[in-house]
Each structure stands twice: as C-alpha cells, then as structure tokens.
C-alpha cells in the first residue's frame, strides 16, 4: 500500500553560477507549476575539481582542534582526535556546523548562506569548555522538531543539550539520565525498539591506558589452567576500576581491554534508560545473553542491513577487541551475526559506512584500518609478528586482519570480504570512511580521512626507543617524552571512485581531496543548498577543512519530516529510480560517522537535467510513500502521512527467506553422511620459512565408486595426517554407513591427496591413495598406495627423491587397452618453488611400471597442482593437461603414447582483467574437461587463485619469487616481490625484519627498515652470497579455455568465481537442459602469517548456456552453501533418480552432500569397456536429435577437478528428446546407438564395448 506524499519543494534562484551559493531557501507546496530547479553553468567552471577546498578563514570558521604536545605524551588516547556535526540548529534551512575540541572549547558556527558562517556567541554551555570533547551528533531527541546536541568526551561519557528552537541550548544530561565518567567516542541513533523514539548507542574507548602509566603491579595466579588476576596496583580484581580491564593468556601475556559501550533506550518520557549488558537485549546466540564486551570501541552505525526495516548495529573496535555485528530481531533485541555469515573483520577497526556498493539490492559494509598503500610505509610500519597473533589466526572462526575490510552482502544475508578485489584494502592510517556519489553516476564513491600525529608504527623509531629504554635508566616522564621521536604521519586523505562493478580506483588528487592535515571526524551536509552534499573535516592542530561539492551533474536531494519522536525520519530508506541509472538506495542516519554526524538528508544522481524520477520512502514504522515524475535539480521534503497510514508489508529478508516458497536446485543432505575432515596441525619447525602459503593441508580428494557392486555409488573420502580415511557404503540412496575396514582404521601418517578407484580386472577392484610427504622424512615417503578391495593387499610406491605428490589421473594413454597412471609432483619440501618430479606408470599385465618421458621430464614451468586426461586434438589417444603453481596450464600432446608440449596458441578475450597478454603463468589450482559450447570438442576449465588477494592488482604485476639456484643447508630461503607499474622496478613484499630473521645476509646488508624499504630487488640481491633465480606470475583469474582446434580461447569465469581460490570442480548437466554446467568449491585459509585468508567463496553453480558462456546462479536458487575451506568435489547420482548430485569436502569441517532436487532427470549410461579398461575411461558420448543437431560431448574421466573422481556412470541431460547416442570408445571405435522407448522409460542405457559383444 502506498500513499501520495506530502511534498515541499525547495525553491532557489533560477540559475546557480560559479562562486555563488543559494540564499536561505523558501519551501513551496508541491505542484508542477511552482517547481524550480538549480542549473549548473558548465562553461563557467570547466577546470574545477569535483571538490573545492574552501578557505575556512574566508568562510568565517576560525576553529582549530588543538592538542598540547605534553598532554598527548601523557595520554596518547587523545590523539584519536575529535569530530563534528552538521545540522540546521536555528530553523533557517541552512545547515550549521558544530566542532568538537580537545584543548579547544567546542564551537557552533551558524550558516549565513553564500559560504559564510558566524560563530554563535553563546550556546548555553554547549561549548563544553571543561572537557576534552570527542564526538558530536545533532538530532531531535525530544520530538519538538528542532535539533538537539549530543557531545561525547573523555571522562564525561555523553552529554545532552536541548535546543530551544533558536539555536540556544540548555543542558539536560542529568534529567535524561545520561551522566557518566566513561570515555565517550562515537554515537549512533536509531529507533531500535520500533516505538517511534530514537535510542542512543554510545561507543566507549578508554580514558587512560597502561601504555601511558607507570609500570603497574599485577598479582596473578594460575587456577584450573587459566590465569586469574587477584589485584592491580593494590586494587582487588572486583573493583569497578579493574573489573574486565585485563586479559591474560600464554601467547600475549597481559592484554588491556577497553570499556563496555552503553545503549540507552528512549521511551518518549523525557529521559533515557541505560541498558546493562546481560539484560537480554544483546544475545550471543539464541537464548544466550551476551557477556559484557570490554572493547576498545571507536565507531558504531545503526542501519537496516538485512532489509527487514529494523536498524541493525555494527561496532568497530580497536586492537584485539572483535568487531560486534548485531542483527535487530525486530523486537528491540539483537542477535550476534556469527560465522559463516561473516568470516573475518579488521583488526584495528576505526570507522565504517554502509551502502549498496554494486547496486545489487543488498547493503554492504566497509571498515577502515591502518594499512598503507605506499610500498615504503608498508615496509617501515611494521607490527610485531606475535602481536595479537591468536586474534589474527586464519584457522579461527572469525580472524581479524590488519587492513580495511569490505563486507559485500550476498544471498542469504552472508557477506563476502572483498576489499582486495575492490582495491580498497589499504588507505593509510584511516579514521572515517564515507560513501558519497561524488560524480553523480549512480554509484557511491568513497572518501576516507587519514593521518596520525605520531607514526607509532614506525619500526625504526620503535627499535631505537626500545634500545634507549633498555640501555638507559629513564624516568617515566623521560620515557613518555621519548615518543616525540615518532614523526608526524601526514598522509593524504583518500578518495576512491566507484567503477560500478564492485571495484574502485584511487582518485583523491584528481578530485581535490588529498589534504595532508591529520584528519579525523568527517561529515556531509548540503551547506549551499544546491542539492549535492558538501564535506567538512575536523583535523587535529589544523584549521577545519571545508569542501564545496562542485559536481555539474543533475541530482535530487531528499529530506524528511517525520512524526514526533523521530521528526527527521531517521532510519527511513529512500529509493530513487532515475532513467538510465541503477536503482539507488540510501538510509537517513544520525551519527554513525567516526565521532561525527551528517545533516539528515540524502542526494541521488539523475542522468539528464530533463529526466523525471520516482522516489519511494520506506519509513521506520513500515509506511511506504511513493512519488513519480519528480524533476531533477530539486530538493524535495517528504512529510510522514501520519500514524493512521497503512503500513506496507515488509519484504522478507534474505536471512529469513520464506520456507517452502522456493525449491532450490540442490538440497543439503549432509546428515546422510555425517563426516568431518580431521587433520593434525603441522609442526612449525618442519615448514620451510617465508613460504607464501602453508603447504600442509592442500588435500584431500574424494572418489565415488561402487565397491560392493550393488549398483549404488559408494564413497571414499580422503583424510589428513592424524585423521582417518572415510569409507562409506551407500544404503540405496537413503544414507551412508561408515565401513569399519581394518585397513582404514589406523590414523594416517601422511595427508592424503588424490583418491582413484578402478577395476584392473573383473576379479579385482583397487583404490589408489595419493600421499603427501610434506611432513614426512624423505626416506619414509610414498607417492601413493594401491589397495585391493578384494584381497586387502596393499603396495606403496615411493616418491621421487625430495618430492611430495599431488594430483593423479588415469587413462589408456598408450593405446594398449588398459588404463595407465600419471602422478603429478606437487612440491619439493624445503625447496619450494622449484619443480617437483612427476611420475608416469604404464599398466603392464596389471602391474604398475614406472616409465620416463624424456621430452617433458621436468615439467619445468612449475609445481603440478592438477591433472586431467582428455582428448583435445582429434586423434584416438588422450592428451594430458596439467596445471602448475607458479607456472602454466600445460597441454601435453599425445603422439602414439609419447607426450610432448603442445605448441598452439592461447587467445585472450576482452573480458579478461589480466594485465599482460603474454604466457599465462599463474597459481593454477584445478582442472576439468567439458564441452562448454556443444561443438563436440573438449574444452577446459582451469581453477586459479582468483583476484581477491593482496597482490592481484595490476600495479603489482607480475608477482615474483626469488630463491637461490642452489640450497645451502637443505632449505631454500625465499624473497617474494612484485614489479611496480610505476617504475618497472621489482620490490620485496615483506619487510626487512621479517626477511632477515630467516636470511642472515639481509640483516648484514641493511641497517634499518627504512633503508631496506627504499631498495629495489636488484639492489637487495646484489648482497646475496649465492646466485638467485626467480619465477613470475601475472594471471590469477579462473578461466574457461575453449578448444578451437589450433588454438584455445581464454575466457574468465563469472566474477564471483574470482573472489577466492577455486579447488573442487564437478561437471554435469545439473538442471537437465542439455548444456554442461559446473559446480565448484573454494577458499584457502593457510596463508602466511602476514596475510589474510581467502574465504569469500561459498561454493557455486554455473549453468552453461551451450555457447561457451556460463550464468552465475544465486545460492538462494542453487541451494549450494559451502562456506568452509573447499577441497575435493565429485559428482554422482547417489540416489538413482537420474539427476547428478555431488559431494564436497571442507577441510577441518563437515563434508557436505548435495542432492539434486530441481533438475530435469536425464538418462544414465552404464558403460563397460575392454578387459583392461572396464570402466570405459576416455569414452566420449553425446546425443543426436531428430533435427540432426547434437548435444555436448561428455567424456569419462578417472581423476579430474581437484584430486577427485566423479562417477563413471554419466547422466546426460536433454535439450529435447534425442534420437541416437553418438559414442566414441577409447582406441578409436565409434558407434551410433538408436535410442528406444525402453531407454526413455527406464532412463537408462547399458552399453558395452563392441569387442565384448558376441
């Protein structure tokens, strides 16, 4: 139900010229004949920057937020700065400015129009001269339609000043129950309870910190294996000044905590009710009230992030304190958002903002941290590797990472962390981010304030001070004074342009937003009433920064008049639909900025000055207003239609999708299997130092095979070292029972890699189990073990010296009628990234005999991570395709059983984001073969690392790794680097301290972090005592390789696939439309200790269109949910309904089974090959339809995807009813088999190789 809006139109001058600003506006009743607009004279300012930095003195603003150096030395918390608030305090429709000061009294500046401000001579004590003020918020707290003032401060919590309507204030802190002595920081207002009144959330930091105090005295004891504090400086542990302040553990020792935040509920009675933690408002889990969070709070924002109409709460916390993400349950209570809904957060979270970044209809969330974009600063601003180590552990449920995070909301209310993909992971020491559509293209851009009065992360200064403190007897005051040695971190403020596809490009200088003043709070307001939002910043020890928005593009600005209790419409969602632009949505907020608050109004882009727009207002109480045919270049004020207006039916949230209304293609039936992957952690002393990622835990794989020959697909699941292999018998599609075979009950001594199950003869069935030797001494290592499922005998085959195996694949590659074996060399432990030796085994009378392939023996382009046999080049023998880490996807052409490198070409499509057109070297992970375009030729899908990692951007391309040509001491030291796009020189990615700990000669060649940070790779390696070699990669996208006979066309897979490394892959026609589809599993957690994990994948379904393209299917339709660390994946019809299902391993988590419930049933093929190839491996089949057209070719593989084996009983979907089956048996025999009505009825074809027929 919608209502015609009550609209007032802001009238201004007929023309807006450069250098002028609007007079105080006059609101006129909304009728078409009275509409006026603000036009922009483009010719009058052709060279203007989007943001003009106005002179604050000329504007009448003389405020400077000063902080005395001595005070900051004694209490460094004050260096967190102060903010400001923007709002119309005196009712003249011109937004005014209120600045907070630390050593400076706060100041209110009244807007006089024409970019002229006048300092209010008195404000009823609102100047707060008796405190160090931090944050400010202007909002109507008492419902009298004027803006009141909330101010936070050190040791004063929050104070309230009530507006008399003329911009004069009277303090109401005591009467409203807000008095406290806490360390007030940022604030956020919203109608949490849905009662029509604004509730207040106040973030607390700390008033003081151990870092500034004389050495404290702790009395600690161990009790029940845990540290317990008895007293601090003589104060007992239960003293309010001590309670909750400290945390103890073996890793970090003593950690100081922050103060709990405070929620105040407003019941419209002229006072606020403080809510105590544990009073059943905040719940960690359903029915479990949250414990008191002693957090280092900096920012909080209330916005409806899940689309249910109620404001949710996100809190940014510094240091070890985890960010808090609270989902409003629409009853005034909050439930914590837990993994897998979110998977990682920032470590030093400062500020945040929310918007729909990519205009997909879901609100996203961005949090800033302190990582620099500068190579020099990244290598000098170094955090101790042990600092907050347990909180950064990438194997934990919710690790914190020391960089910005961009949480992009996906289906089901889950969030993918995509800051690195978006290129906004680093923005210097950041404080306040704001999304604002600066260029008015319909996508909101990003502004960020940065800087710090002391660069406390400077490792050289910190090291010098540590030496001074330990070598000299300094007093406490002398120690504090020594901090002056830290230089000012005067980094430029940053701006990023939204490219509209989830990515951003840096543009601060081009947009005039690059001041180097140490900047903290920032807020938006339309200071000149021209319809766009201007920007104001409150720096430290520097005049205020005022930016006039000079965009010349059309726009509309919307502001609201709500009912008493929420007169400015806080929490309402505004939707604007303008021709030729995406649907734009923004919420009206109060507070939420770092220490700051915007004017409660929002601006939206319009493409053409003559375009008309539609506006929808969804008020906090559920009332929906609509207005159409509104003109561009106007400001519209919507008035709430009243309490009796009918409320709209809220759309169900993604997190609460109505049950039974949508049938997904797949259904999670993992309870039928009940398997969890287990693996013992690696001994750190066994690992090669300075690896870019951990090498243990790369597996395992999975295999479908009917081991009891009852016609139902059974399951083998690989295990990790210390765990057990899983062997599961299929109970006629109703579930799986674990087989307790003695051979599989012992804990595994090695991680398992690939699993392959096959039939050497009609009397035997064997399981090949690949084994990793990364954690096993070389003399004891085996590459794989062959186990007979008939007689229980097993035989191990050794790894080549110093090699750990990975992928395995089988096919009749020598054309003698039986299947042979390839074992890929994955890595040489201690010698990463040198090539590992692969092995070739011929099947000679049922025995594996190792053979050599002289022409390709070294596979020198990299370490083999995946392999598949497939017929690509037209003859009767299969090619071998291998994917290599730090190498290429290599096609080995089969010439009469001898392999050589294929010399054809790779053509790159325009969709590829790769920075170069040369050899496609990458961190390839997995391979699968399919006929994606239905031309009868087998194409390839190659999994790669994706482009959501810290070095994927083209300015770091190519990525390099340097290592000695000969190892000393048996282990290769590594230096990772990249080639800068700026000067084409190569630079290291790791800092001097980190590298020199494992490479002693670097510690001797350089004397400081700064010196090392200024050296390029040539200068660094000139000091190496041994010759160095290198590898380089530049391609990270997962791709489809379309077979064009003499060349392959490379096409990137859909963008969401690129968000995380791609491991498991399965091919089949899952929806039964006659085209080949792809399912996949992703993610990798075992990154280096200085990196953050790749966890943005949640599994996927790509539906093939039959033309070599795929359609990404949202998880709400596919049903697939694989949030963990995906590895092996394999396809089979486990319940015999003639629809392909699949199973996927999640490392150290639940193995998930996905039953196909929505696809059209196909026809199952049961093929019997020759005596040495009973499973008919290498057979290719496809339909022939009545009109002569043909379906895609399907090939039977033994080993594909990632170290796994799908069923050898293929199911072929049908675009229409087929007439015949075209079948190409291994060895070159082809047949055309007529399809009978019996085949169609039973949905089954049982076929044997012609040699087996009488």
Structure description:
With 1254 residues, the protein is mainly beta. The protein has three domains: 52-206 and 258-382 and 403-453 and 488-591, YVTN repeat-like/Quinoprotein amine dehydrogenase (Methylamine Dehydrogenase, Chain H), CATH 2.130.10; 703-909 and 919-954 and 1034-1234, YVTN repeat-like/Quinoprotein amine dehydrogenase (Methylamine Dehydrogenase, Chain H, 7 Propeller); 959-1033, no CATH class. The strands form 22 sheets. It has a six-stranded mixed sheet, with no helix packed on it. The N and C termini lie far apart (74 Å).
Notable traits:
1254 residues, Methylamine Dehydrogenase, Chain H, 3 domains, 5-stranded mixed sheet, 37% strand, globular, disordered N terminus
What's this model, at a glance?
The chain has 1254 residues and is mainly beta.
What is the topological layout?
Blueprint: E1 2-3, E2 6-11, E3 26-29, E4 51-54, H1 69-74, E5 84-87, E6 96-99, E7 107-113, E8 116-119, E9 133-139, E10 148-153, E11 157-163, E12 169-171, E13 184-190, E14 199-204, E15 218-223, E16 226-232, E17 235-236, E18 246-249, E19 253-256, E20 262-266, E21 272-275, E22 282-285, E23 288-289, E24 296-303, E25 312-318, E26 324-328, E27 334-336, E28 345-346, E29 352-355, E30 364-367, H2 375-380, H3 389-392, E31 400-401, E32 405-409, E33 415-417, H4 419-422, E34 430-436, E35 445-450, H5 459-471, H6 476-481, E36 494-498, E37 504-506, E38 519-525, E39 534-539, E40 545-549, E41 555-561, E42 573-577, E43 584-587, E44 590-591, E45 601-605, E46 612-618, E47 624-631, E48 634-639, E49 666-668, E50 702-705, E51 714-717, E52 726-730, E53 736-738, E54 752-761, E55 764-771, E56 782-788, E57 794-798, E58 804-811, E59 820-827, E60 839-844, E61 847-851, E62 863-870, E63 879-887, E64 889-895, E65 898-901, E66 905-908, E67 922-923, E68 926-930, E69 939-943, E70 959-964, E71 975-979, E72 986-988, H7 992-996, H8 1000-1005, ...
Parallel strand pairs: 1-47, 22-27, 28-31, 41-48, 66-75, 83-89
Antiparallel strand pairs: 2-3, 2-48, 4-40, 5-6, 6-7, 7-8, 9-10, 10-11, 11-12, 13-14, 13-44, 14-20, 15-16, 16-17, 18-19, 20-21, 22-23, 24-25, 25-26, 26-27, 29-30, 30-32, 32-33, 34-35, 35-36, 36-37, 38-39, 39-40, 41-45, 42-43, 42-46, 46-47, 49-82, 50-51, 51-52, 52-53, 54-55, 55-56, 56-57, 58-59, ...
